[in-house]
Amino acid sequence: MRILSWIGGVIAALVLVGLIALNVSPIGRIYLPTATGITAKQVCSLHFVSGLTPDRARALYIDPLLGGAAGLVSANVDTQDNSVHSRVLGLWHQEAVYREGLGCTLVHGSGEFDPDARLAPLAVTPMVLDATHRDAHFDPAALNAALDAAMTQDGRNTLGVVVLHQGRLIAERYAEGVDETTPLHGWSMTKSLAATMAGVLTQRGLIDVTAEGQVPALVAAGRREITVDHLLRMTAGLAGYELNNGMDPNSDMLFTESDMATFAATREQIAAPGGVWDYQSGNTVLAGSALEEFLGDTPQEEIARIREWLFEPLGMAHSILESDEAGTLQWSSYMYASARDWARLGQLYLDGGRAPDGTRLIPEDWIDYVTEPTPGSSGDYGSGYWMYEVGLPDDNFMMNGFQGQLTYIIPSEELVIVRLGATNFRHDGSPEFARAVVAARLEPTEN
What we know:
Blueprint: H1 2-24, H2 26-49, H3 54-66, E1 73-78, E2 83-88, E3 92-99, E4 103-107, H4 131-137, H5 140-150, E5 158-165, E6 168-174, E7 184-185, H6 190-203, H7 216-220, H8 228-232, H9 249-256, H10 260-265, H11 281-291, H12 299-314, E8 319-321, E9 335-337, H13 339-350, H14 366-371, E10 397-401, E11 405-410, E12 415-421, H15 430-439
Antiparallel strand pairs: 1-2, 2-3, 3-4, 5-6, 5-12, 7-9, 8-9, 10-11, 11-12
Helix pairs in contact: 1-2, 2-3, 2-9, 5-15, 6-11
């Protein structure tokens, strides 16, 4: 019996040492916390904001990213307090909490989070399919074929597509359980919102994106020379490589940090501001934190102002921008909006920066600002927008997000084309869809 007891003690000691080693390793310090973080956060947002079942949210958006670890990660939805708890092996735990109008936030217990904050829904602005306009400018059969191809159930998981021409809705299609009111995750298309809100504040005379000392977290870190323009263009020179593999600083920021702006601001300075292009979400979080200085003191005040100055004039009634626990809005990755709302945001640029009622929201030349190629980006990146799609008119630019979120804006064709979905480790088909829509255009007839 003593031998068995001794063996049991050795085994217990080895297990304990193994767990301690795992906990202090990169896997325990970063990967497993980010696995629970992405699971809790995404299940929460995709269920309470987007209306997907937890199982569908995991199958589409989350488990493919976790791979073999997916079976180890639990997610329990509490509909009484609108929260999701995620765990791995009972050692790593994360909680996400939903608040109406504000979406979901990972809560780590810092004491800054207000669970009772709420915002009422916005009034819906109708958008009706304009079949007459469609048939006058497009081949309906070709356009329908483009929609069929985009929505083919072949593993790309396309959830919604929308096409606007001259500001009119001419085509849309949705997957089962999704419709024109469903807010879907835009991931890094949120960066385009940040660049647009910078335009809103510029139009109002509140900010100069090239001025120094406007980013509180950077000023506190002794880096006042980094401007909002540097941040929007990804040339701040801060370390923080982005791989989205659960082990990189970006994953750490998104899924384990309570104060994302401070995390991003305190990365090592590896290049002079403006010298090197390096795409990383922390830059846009910092840029957005500077914008918030002019929007309000709390997330609900800031969102209310964004609604007043941008969403409501454009009719974006199904858009949610989430915050971190410290109250900083998550400008790089966490806007959920309906396909129509993403299209409305793109249409702002085709309308010369004006809302449908003619009110100017951003400077007329802001389209030139966001599409001016940033040195070092191979001409592909401007300020919150990309410009690189082959096979489309040369003036196209786009919002682009992880897992196949695309909004193409094509001024020469007066088109906005949106594709949203949950594509993992394969081509999402967005360029082919956009090219098919352009090809469906009818040649103008001479009077």
